[in-house]
Design goal:
The protein folds into 3 domains: 166 residues, Metallo-dependent phosphatases (Purple Acid Phosphatase, chain A, domain 2, 4-Layer Sandwich), CATH 3.60.21.10; 57 residues; 157 residues, no CATH class. 34% of the residues lie in helices and 14% in strands. It has 13 helices and 11 strands. Strands 2-3-5-6-8-7 form a 6-stranded mixed sheet, with no helix packed on it. It has a 3-stranded mixed sheet with strand order 9-11-10, with no helix packed on it. Strands 1-4 form a two-stranded antiparallel ribbon. The N and C termini lie far apart (47 Å).
């Protein structure tokens, strides 16, 4: 186990006392303190004669008095798997995770903690390793069964081939639908719009085919894994002392304005509005006033207020579905540094719009967002299973 930002929010003394009380096998590899942490930088054990080494990687935004977080890449670049299985427990955000995966060539499995959604199908890393997640809400237990193959290079998930084939089928079906609609279109504007959608889905199809080929190529040269997410029941009640601490922490932060103090810096656009390629909905209204007016009448326009009302605006599990761009690695990753991207705005559905706002005729967005965009948040778990595409889309179509 690795203590992360959510644990240390209650203070180092609390984390150490809980770790000691319950004899938790904590590991944390890239934090150096004047008074050393009481846990090792790595842990290792054996299973069926195979040595397994576990690293714990803290997020650079972790704030501990008398401590500093070091570069995890420099640490993991020296790791070589060889006859050892290397596992990384990561508290990094999406963008940093992706960067670390490119550098950590000797890592076999990276287990992410920041992803709300569990990864039923592990995400491949460039080195042949896999990225795993059981979700960050404590609702599922991730179980990974590993079968070593002598001389294997990387790992093959037995369920990935079917998942990638499904992606190819979905993209192919969408392209067939677009071709039919395009053949029936009678005006130039509709043909141009459908052509742009065809270009988008053609790329999606090519990417899916490449992923399928990678997933099914040379199966004998890779070790095999079977990944399962097992749902946990609701029969276990809340732990009263922890619930009391959480409630006190939320109450102390209720209504707090996002502060620059301690916030992670974000690349902003002109005037300090937006993050990276996301310009904010205000950049869209000049050209799309009727659409903006309709959007203002929807629940999407009040999504952040609902989060604040529930005292969850700083909750890393929640804010990503109530602001614009957080699902993108280049969007806002810190709930204290949103820079005008509160609420589910235009770019949540149509894509990052800074380039489009600067050059509308050459930088195009997705005019009719696919269902896959919706279910990133309306995934039946986070919305209690209430999502019905036809009914929901009718409320937001403009």
């Amino acid at each position: 186990m690795m203590p992360g930002r959510g644990d240390f929010a209650f203070g180092r003394a609390f984390v150490e006392s809980v770790g000691k009380e319950f004899e938790l096998p904590y590991v944390i590899s890239n934090v150096e303190c004047i008074t050393p942490l009481p846990w090792p930088a790595t842990r290792s054990f054996e299973r069926n004669g195979v040595k397994i080494v576990v690293y714990g990687i803290a997020n650079p935004s972790l704030e501990l008095v008398g401590c500093r977080v070091t570069d995890p890449g420099a640490l993991l670049e020296t790791v070589r798997a060889d006859d050892t299985v290397v596992i990384v427990l990561s508290d990094l955000d999406k963008g940093r995770d992706a960067d670390l995966a490119k550098r950590a060539t000797g890592v076999d499995f990276m287990v992410r903690s920041d992803s709300i959604e569990g990864l039923v199908t592990p995400t491949p890393m460039a080195n042949g390793g896999l990225i795993l997640s059981s979700g960050s809400r404590g609702r599922q237990l991730g179980l990974l069964e590993v079968e070593l193959t002598p001389g294997a290079l990387g790992w093959r998930d037995e369920g990935e081939g079917a998942a990638r084939a499904s992606d190819v089928d979905a993209a192919t079906a969408k392209l067939k639908e677009l071709a039919t609609r395009k053949a029936a279109a009678t005006d130039t504007k509709s043909v141009e719009r459908l052509t742009r959608q065809e270009e988008f889905w053609t790329k999606k199809q090519a990417d899916a085919r490449a992923a399928l080929e990678l997933a099914t190529a040379a199966p004998g040269s890779k070790g095999r894994v079977r990944n399962e997410l097992r749902g946990l029941g609701v029969d276990a009640g809340e732990h009263a002392p922890t619930l009391e601490r959480v409630s006190a922490f939320k109450a102390a932060n209720t209504g707090s304005a996002p502060s620059a103090a301690g916030a992670v810096s974000s690349p902003m656009g002109e005037g300090g509005v937006g993050v990276g390629p996301f310009a904010g909905s205000a950049a869209c209204t000049a050209c799309h006033a009727p659409q903006a007016k309709q959007w203002a009448s929807t629940g999407h326009a009040r999504a952040y207020a609902a989060l604040v009302a529930d005292q969850r605006q700083f909750d890393l599990d929640c804010f990503g579905c109530h602001v614009t761009g957080a699902k993108d690695a280049n969007g806002p990753q810190d709930p204290r540094a949103l820079h005008g991207l509160e609420n589910v705005g235009c770019e949540s559905c149509h894509g990052a719009g800074r380039d489009h706002a600067a050059s509308p005729t050459t930088a195009h967005l997705v005019a009719s967002p696919p269902t896959s965009q919706c279910v990133q948040c309306h995934d039946s778990r986070q919305d209690g299973g209430r999502f019905e595409e036809a009914a929901y889309r009718a409320r937001v179509t403009h």
